[in-house]
Design goal:
heterotetramer, A: 333 residues, alpha/beta, six-stranded mixed β-sheet, globular, B: 210 residues, two-stranded antiparallel sheet, 3% strand, binds adenosine-5'-diphosphate, binds magnesium ion
Chain lengths: 333, 210, 333, 210
């Protein structure tokens, strides 16, 4: 049976936000009324406000990326649920300095609906809002025009970092939206789970797997993936993730990528680095340069055991922005 | 025969709706459990409680304040229904503006604008097993009554009947929007809770003898 | 059944080190011959070399703390096993600039034996070595003089950070040894597990727990704790950890502590922050200032679900060193 | 009658020991499984393989090189036995220095220094069910023979007998050091593998007809 450190499951996110704020008081403040996490010290010069929001259960995303060089504000919903329109609205107002606010969203209906409503509400007061929509999850690619499109996952971190640096330098709302969308569009991800996740207070994961199978193509909400595949050695599984991603991006020899090998929650750092080593070798084999990389639990699905592999096509300008200073509780350099 | 809705009447309508929603919340939640993801009841309860709080702080003399209270409460609630209802009620409030009492043409215009906002934001049309199946007929009934110069109370009764009828048809429909699409045929025979709540809203106007 | 991303379990640590080096090439290099992880760019000015070593399976410890302002070199053993004397020797030689090398060890027989032998071997060549021994685990406190003493756990991170900053400023080997030991001696930790850990390639954790019990007083190697206690809400469990720790340190109102709420592997960030919130409230209740804190998976026990709570008594001088710049893959500010 | 050990003889001794260790590794590992944590066999195999590699690169003319190869290999191996054996062999090499051949007093001094290092670093004394129970009697035998001016081959035979006898006594002892303490009485009747490997080392000198 799964167990968690939890008091009232209904209050879990709020209690955690309280702890997060206290542990990182030099970096962030949690606005209890508006229910958003903003920088402790708002950006000094007028700059475009960067907002990212979505359901909770994915920590350290997004609040862990609030700080100089990345986000101005993160908007946390309930576990696996969209923040409300009111939260998006309050957060948008809080970080507008007159230069407008960029909404960085992962492609989920609720997030788009609520953030879109907030954008309408603040437009009444002349606050400009643009949106970057991250839809990197190759498992949900589809030719059906009526399908909701690919889900958004770990590529959002690269968007936040790169756009964050450009915003710090005074780029305009339109420039940031264009840049962010370009980063997002050049990204694809695939994930697989060795076991699913359980909600705080719940004893059982959302699905069970046989000992000899893995769930391939999972998202970040404990839903089933696209198919079951045989359990296999790490290198084999890593290749099943990275090769279709590289193919989908049509990566050519000589191109550069950012790699994110992301732990979905319960997967250990040793394992993630073993997977990354194989992903990097696959890039070598294609003549693609692993320009930068992140390996760790950055976008989790509660206590899911699994890994996602993200490739992000980057150019030198993006890399320069990636390398620019950031001070957040998770990424800092 | 009533021809306008003042602040007190608007507030009475809203409160009657909150009472009805509270009374039926379990049944509505159950519909979402059978044809959705089951959280409609929780979401509605959150909205109802929040609306009561906001209403208490609002300006009792203004019809707009009553609708704005609903808007604020629903916009602060999760799920798909929360923000859509929130935007629907927002249009009602906007139509009412700062008038001390609103007439049928004003109300009809607000409801039509509200349904338009829901359709624009949610992307649904009539026949897709959503709240729109109750909202659109109600808006049409109000608009027709306004065009015909009908009295307000009769128009609201028409709207309530139209909303209920629209809601009832959703049981025969296959969902093409929202979470109900994921359960497919399992939802056939189940009324859409979002539509049923819309019927409750217009029926509350009638039950309240406006 | 537990499963992991693993190829050859015997090669797991080496494969992961290869991945770690590649993902952090700007910060570290993995010396394959000597089998240690050193800074990519050795300290420029002559300074005391800071070495920490111990078994693997605790990642990001210690390699994640190699970099400016913290360690010069980390020495990784096999999973849950001491590095060899040859590794300690090679690593010690690699980071000596003439100012001597400080061995930061957690209190385990094998680590002490092998590092001690290395110290003897390099002494033949005039390299001075001093040792800080971290023994913070209150669960293994004992009056028996023949007992091996308290185990070392997460307090080692505070030692590495504080001593690391002092070393960067040119403190002598003797000063650093004294400072580090003072930090270590003012630290205590208690941990509990909700489920034990499985080694890479193994299907079952080292022990099983009933649904209504937790393992209290666990170490970091999957061994049983000192007793079973009833499963309880997070705040209750947090108090059972923090109160004895505060009592053991005889913390008085007006004192300052560093708090480390550490995830043992599979425990989610939301949970860790819920636990931290209660730990901080307990400090408030005692009038003790939570001066700084770390909340996250810093010293893991593979995929164990559990948490450790560490309190470290600090003075202003230590805090100033804590706040000094660091550039490592895990801590960076 | 042999009075000194040259480079070739030292190397032959070391190789005979590696062969014997390899032959008995399963049995030794099994002892650690019954009265320890079971990794003695794996540790020993690692050391034996590493020793063969280092030996191949060493100076075949120097006795010190043969013992230093063992030292390097064992110091590069995990477990408690690896570093202790490594330091034991290191003292043998240090005693041999750069002499092309070593006599009994030199060998005896090296073995005594080696056992002293093991005791100092490991903290064990005779009677605690460790490698010391075989090492100390062997060192005493060599030292006595050296004092008596005995020939080298006879002295080594004495040392081998003493080491084996000491190793055999460990079956009757209760562990007071190392991982065997954790299993307590379950280890009674089980010979200590670390001591048994020491016996193999001295027996290898005799079997090799030095
Ligand atoms: N795209 C849409 N347009 C209009 N109404 C919708 C849409 N999607 C869902 N709904 C309405 O929302 C109701 C479900 O609300 P709720 O349970 O709160 O949201 P969720 O489906 O996100 O869990 C449905 O009964 C339906 O009436
Ligand atoms: N403190 C000690 N002093 C001397 N020898 C020891 C000591 N502890 C253990 N040993 C020896 O080491 C052997 C076990 O070695 P090994 O299995 O490699 O190490 P570990 O006990 O760390 O797994 C024992 O059989 C014993 O002879
Ligand atoms: Mg629902
Ligand atoms: Mg829902
Ligand atoms: Mg052993
Ligand atoms: Mg062992």
């Amino acid at each position: 049976m799964r167990r968690q450190f939890v008091n009232d499951p209904q209050d879990h996110v709020r209690e955690a936000l309280g702890g997060f704020e206290r542990a990182n008081a030099h970096l962030v403040r949690w606005d209890r009324e508006g229910n958003f996490v903003a920088r402790a010290t708002p950006a000094a010069a007028p700059k475009v406000g960067l907002l990212a929001g979505g359901g909770s259960g994915h920590e350290p995303l997004h609040a862990g990326f609030v700080g100089t060089g990345m986000l101005d504000v993160a908007v946390p919903g309930a576990i696996y649920s969209s923040p409300t329109a009111a939260q998006f609205e309050a957060a948008t107002r809080a970080v507008d300095t007159g230069a407008g606010v960029l909404h960085i969203l992962k492609n989920y209906t609720g997030d788009k609906l609520n953030a879109g409503i907030a954008a309408e509400l603040v437009a009444d007061d002349g606050i400009a809002v643009e949106r970057v929509l991250v839809a990197d999850d190759l498992a949900t690619d589809s030719d059906d025009p009526r399908a909701p499109g690919r889900r958004g996952t770990a590529a959002v971190i690269a968007v936040e970092k790169i756009v964050g640096a450009a915003a710090e330098r005074g780029a305009s709302l339109a420039e940031l939206a264009e840049l962010g969308q370009r980063v997002a569009d050049g990204s694809r991800t695939l994930a697989l789970a060795l076991s699913s996740c359980a909600h705080p207070g719940e004893g059982h994961p959302s699905f069970e797997l046989a000992d000899d199978e893995v769930e391939f193509g999972v998202g970040i909400h404990g839903e089933r993936g696209i198919e079951k595949r045989p359990f296999a050695p790490a290198d084999d599984l890593a290749r099943q993730l990275v090769e279709p991603v590289a193919d989908a991006l049509e990566l050519k020899s000589g191109e550069q990528v950012l790699v994110i090998v992301n732990g979905l929650g319960a997967t250990h750092g040793l394992e993630l680095h073993v997977v990354f080593a194989e992903v990097a070798r696959r890039m070598d084999a294609r003549g693609v340069t692993v320009a930068r990389s992140l390996v760790g639990p950055y976008l989790t699905a509660l206590d899911m055991a699994g890994v996602s592999v993200t490739l992000i096509r980057v150019d030198d300008a993006m890399l320069e922005l990636w390398d620019a200073p950031a001070r957040t509780s998770v990424l800092s350099w | 025969m009533v021809s306008t809705l003042d602040g007190a009447a608007s507030r009475a309508w809203v409160e009657a709706f909150l009472g009805a929603a509270e009374r039926d919340v379990t049944a509505l939640g159950d519909l979402d459990r059978r044809a959705g993801d089951g959280d409609f009841g929780t979401n509605l309860t959150t909205s109802v409680n929040a609306a009561r709080r906001v209403l208490a702080d609002g300006d009792a003399a203004l019809p707009a304040a009553a609708f704005a209270a609903l808007s604020t409460a629903f916009l602060g609630t999760g799920g798909t229904s929360g923000p859509l209802y929130g935007m629907f009620f927002r249009e009602l409030g906007k139509a009412a503006g700062d008038q001390p009492a609103i007439d049928l043409p004003t109300l009809a215009a607000g409801v039509v604008a509200g349904v338009d906002a829901v359709c624009r934001l949610g992307g649904a049309e009539v026949g897709e097993k959503t709240m729109v199946d109750a909202l659109r007929p109600a808006a049409d009934a109000l608009a027709a009554a306004a065009d015909a110069g009908a009295p307000l109370d009769g128009a609201l009764a028409d709207a309530a009947r139209a909303a209920r009828a629209g809601s009832d048809t959703t049981a025969t429909l296959v969902a093409r929007r929202g979470r109900a699409t994921y359960v497919g045929d399992a939802a056939s025979g189940v009324t859409d809770p979002g539509a049923a709540a819309v019927a409750l809203f217009f029926e509350a106007a009638v039950a309240n003898h406006l």
